[in-house]
Design a protein that fits this description.
- A hairpin with a 4-residue loop joins strand 7 and strand 8.
- The protein has about 375 residues and is of the alpha+beta class.
- The strands form five sheets. The protein has a four-stranded antiparallel beta sheet, with no helix packed on it. It has a four-stranded antiparallel beta sheet with strand order 7-8-9-10, with no helix packed on it. A four-stranded antiparallel beta sheet has the order 11-12-13-14, with no helix packed on it.
- Bound molecules: zinc ion (2 copies).
């Protein structure tokens, strides 16, 4: 017995199973469904054309220029280090020989003068002659030594590890915390240690009560100094000053990584500090109050307050700025709202404080 078309109210006999809807349809409805399918081809063509155009006009230079700039910076930095060692060793070489030459020249002048004096006076003794002869023999030996000076230069080739630069492809908006490497080593902090930490290219700066410590890439403490001041609220590194900046309740300290000396660079009783960050030219600090201000300091020639950014430009009256980080002309802020008990992250232009984006965090 023949089956009828599955379309409601259609009384025609079904002529086949339709490919698009898996129903038994009559010839007319099969045709209708077929035409409908064909009309869907055109938009697909449009889409593929759009994708082809996008690929054609893709600017690879834009895609890689930022990363390329980073590689360039690494290269320049390495060259600078090599140039600096080279200059230092050249000076060392000059100094090694120049000191001998200077002494020889002075001694020659002295003896020459002495002989001239004796000739002018037309008066000398056997003892003078013997003494001068012996001095001249010594100068001759010295001269031979200077002429025969040579240096042995032992050099080791610079071994550059491939892993100095690792390139990983990511999607722009993606922040994948699972790509973090595994824990390499753990440093246990004794009770009473402050939680702030920061780093430069060489060291990590941490507080291990009662000391401030520099930790190297192998996670070994290489230098430490007693921290005899108050609570540390935040730290950052300034390449311009070549110093670590440590924020205490009312003071801003500079730490010299070579000598581990601690200098008070700015003291105030009117403000309590909470967090800090640096650009090449300025230091930003946030104040530990609701309705936080952000203070802007000049770094050179000395740390000097140049501007105060107040609420409501920085945040609302019931909000505090817990953390700030400067990068690429912008400031990232972690803002805590006291009434709503909520936390949000913001990115703002460092020069105007205009907000670029804000992200409410569910924590
Ligand atoms: Zn169909
Ligand atoms: Zn039908």
């Amino acid at each position: 017995m023949s089956q009828s078309c599955s379309i409601q109210k259609c009384v025609r006999t079904s002529r086949g199973l339709c490919d698009c809807c898996q129903q038994n349809l009559c010839l007319q409805h099969l045709n209708e469904h077929n035409s409908l399918l064909i009309t869907q081809l055109n938009p697909l063509t449009d889409e593929i054309n759009t994708l082809e155009d996008r690929l054609k006009t893709l600017n690879i230079q834009n895609t890689i220029s930022n990363s390329r700039r980073k590689l360039e910076e690494w290269r320049k930095d390495c060259y600078k280090k090599i140039d600096s060692i080279f200059e230092q060793k050249c000076q060392e070489l000059d100094q090694l020989i120049e000191e001998n030459i200077r002494q020889q020249r002075e001694e020659l002048n002295r003896v020459h003068l002495k002989i001239s004096e004796l000739i002018n006076a037309q008066e000398t003794t056997r003892q003078d002659i013997d003494s001068l002869t012996s001095t001249i023999r010594q100068l001759e030996t010295n001269m031979n030594n200077i002429e025969q000076t040579c240096f042995t230069i032992n050099t080791r080739p610079l071994i550059i590890d491939e892993t100095f630069i690792l390139i990983k492809k990511t999607t722009k908006s993606e922040l994948d915390l699972s790509t973090l490497s595994l824990v390499y080593k753990t440093i246990v902090c004794p009770e009473g240690s402050f939680v702030s930490l920061t780093c430069n290219v060489r060291y990590l700066l941490i507080h291990q009560a009662p000391n401030l410590c520099l930790v190297d890439r192998e996670m070994k403490i290489v230098k430490q100094t007693l921290w005899s001041y108050g609570t540390i609220w935040d730290m950052c590194w300034s390449s311009t000053l070549d110093r670590f900046i440590v924020l205490e309740r009312n003071n801003i300290y500079l730490i010299n990584e070579n000598t581990m000396s601690i200098d008070n660079a700015y003291a105030t009783q009117e403000r309590r500090w909470l967090s800090c960050t640096c650009s090449d030219t300025v230091l930003f600090t946030s104040t530990n109050t609701y309705g936080s201000s952000i203070m802007e300091f000049r770094l050179l020639p000395a740390i000097e307050l140049i501007r105060e950014w107040k609420y409501s430009l920085t945040c609302s009256r019931d909000e505090g700025i817990n953390d700030i980080v400067f990068n690429n002309g912008n400031l990232a802020l972690m803002v805590m709202n006291d009434s709503k008990k909520s936390l949000r992250m913001e990115l703002r232009y460092a020069t105007t404080f205009d907000c670029i984006w804000a992200l409410q965090l569910d924590i």
